[in-house]
Amino acid sequence: MITGISVSSPSVSCTVQNPTAVDTYEIKIVCNTSNSKTHVGKIVCDVYESANLITYLGAPNSNSYCTLKEANDYVRNVRGHSNSWDTLSVEGKKHLLIQACRDINRFNYIGKKYYDNQSLEFPRDDHPKITGDCATPLSINSFKNTSFTTDTYGSYKSNNNYWKYGTVHITNATPLYDIRNVDTSSVTTDIITVTASFTATPTVNTDFICFEPLDTKIKYAQCEQALHILESEGSDTLQNYKQQGAERVSIGDVDITFKQGAIPRPSISSKAVSYTHLTLP
After folding, report:
1. 14-37 confidence digits (pLDDT tens)
2. Of the candidates 90, 50, 101, 100, the residue with the CA atom closest to the CA atom of residue 68
């Protein structure tokens, strides 16, 4: 399975071909020094499949509140920089964001979810939205409705691309049940375009609901939790072991057994809490 081994002192690299997804592999490395010393090391490799960030609001299969671009922008523009984040691969970042979303999704929030079957806690039942019929001009990835904009000067709906990152649900007629994120919106034409084409072109009989973009604080909380997970990785504190579900830990001659019965909670970033006002269940 291991091929392409190369040595360029003091570095060693190798290629693992065709590993099985979701499996964990342990690679043993044995080095013999010029003075006849032998050093043995181990590397643990987790193999995972490519992840898709699904950011639809109100969908049953969503797994993230923010896109990878939004996360990158947050880390660079709000945090300033994060060397640990910048060294991650694209797949590593996506998996980290999905885990961070799971973490903040486990807590209680005011109100109820908008749809009972939506996978994430947001949007809530009071989330701003508009409903209506699709109007001409119609295409496979766009439609018009005058409710998308307003003539009131200074209103938030008077800004181009206000609806970007909002989500459209088709609730009646063709293409029924399609869910798409908004890519652009125009205050001059009242037209929105979606990030991926509908399965069919809407008609004037097509009904929709469109959720306004999610409050950026929820997205920031997810980003902060992702950074928190990354920056806490490898920490060997007792609290981290307990949060990871460990029942017993031995450190040297000391053996510690954690109290049973309580469901371990994820370690949550204090900045994520400040953004979302999380409360424990």
Report:
1. 666 766 654 566 677 777 777 877
2. 90
Q: Indicate the residue type of 112.
A: K
Closest by CA to 221, choosing from 84, 65, 68, 114, is: 65
CA distances 146 to 56, 57, 116, 186, 189, Å, are: 23, 22, 29, 10, 8
Q: Round to whole Å and give the CA distance between 81 and 71.
A: 12
Q: What is the dihedral of CA 63, 65, 70, 72, to 10 degrees?
A: -50
- Residue 12's H or E segment, with its range, is strand 11-16
Spatial CB neighbours of 176, under 8 Å, sequence gap ≥ 6? 170
User: Pairing relation of β-strands 142-144 and 191-194?
Assistant: antiparallel
Do residues 231 and 79 touch, judged by C-beta distance below 8 A?
A: no
Are 91 and 51 contacting, i.e. CB atoms less than 8 angstroms apart? yes
Q: Is 166 exposed, middle or buried (0-12, 13-18, 19+ CB in 10 A)?
A: buried
Measured CA to CA, the distance from residue 11 to residue 28 in angstroms comes to 15
Q: What is the pTM (predicted TM-score) of this model?
A: 0.74
